[in-house]
Amino acid sequence: xxxxxxxxxxxxxxxxxxxxxxxxxxxxxxxxxxxxxxxxxxxxxxxxxxxxxxxxxxxxxxxxxxxxxxxxxxxxxxxxxxxxxxxxxxxxxxxxxxxxxxxxxxxxxxxxxxxxxxxxxxxxxxxxxxxxxxxxxxxxxxxxxxxxxxxxxxxxxxxxxxxxxxxxxxxxxxxxxxxxxxxxxxxxxxxxxxxxxxxxxxxxxxxxxxxxxxxxxxxxxxxxxxxxxxxxxxxxxxxxxxxxxxxxxxxxxxxxxxxxxxxxxxxxxxxxxxxxxxxxxxxxxxxxxxxxxxxxxxxxxx
Length: 302
Fold this sequence. Notes:
single chain; alpha/beta; six-stranded mixed sheet
């Protein structure tokens, strides 16, 4: 079943039937000590961590934290320079060059309705006029959620960041399964410009639907109800706005497979607490099943 690319962009794909569980213990397979993996949601409130059973014990039993990326690299000048460049259009281009007149007018009207100002504002024109269309999509997703949940979400201290901060507080190593450059290319360089423009138009045309779906996904995450999370992520519009199988594979399945080439050696050397997007975990191509296929015992932590 097709999934909305806007949910997939948060790496929140889910398949399978595993209910009310975010934290999993990984043992066996030659490991001397267990490791753990927890599903995250990039818009989740950090205080929710206290409601997940077994988290503090799992952190105590492990000696390092691995995320999708090492958040510490966010301060690396070279990595962040690459990310910023990937988010922007080539030198000399603006949105007027890559959007149709109709798409540009839709975006201008949308920004005016949501922000109170559109491209007639020099500040908006200068800050957004050179962004790639999909850069604007990712920013509008977060902005829309924050506007609907004033004071509930702090982008400077996310769910993922908290675990890495705890490791550093305890003088434990922090690592990443991917590099910032990889994620920059995945989000901003892998989609052809015409597809990026189409996805931006899709976001505008179906904004209420996308906001409603994100609300369902977030509520299901807070309920730790992965069946409901799957159902929400499986919703589709039924047109070209839905992600293609190839896009889904690039965003989720291929990354899961790549992580499973790295996790065994990481766990063998050091008991590790992994933090990845919640819907990378289940399904036949999900991290949990891939770990089982590799000979590990994978159990929910109650």
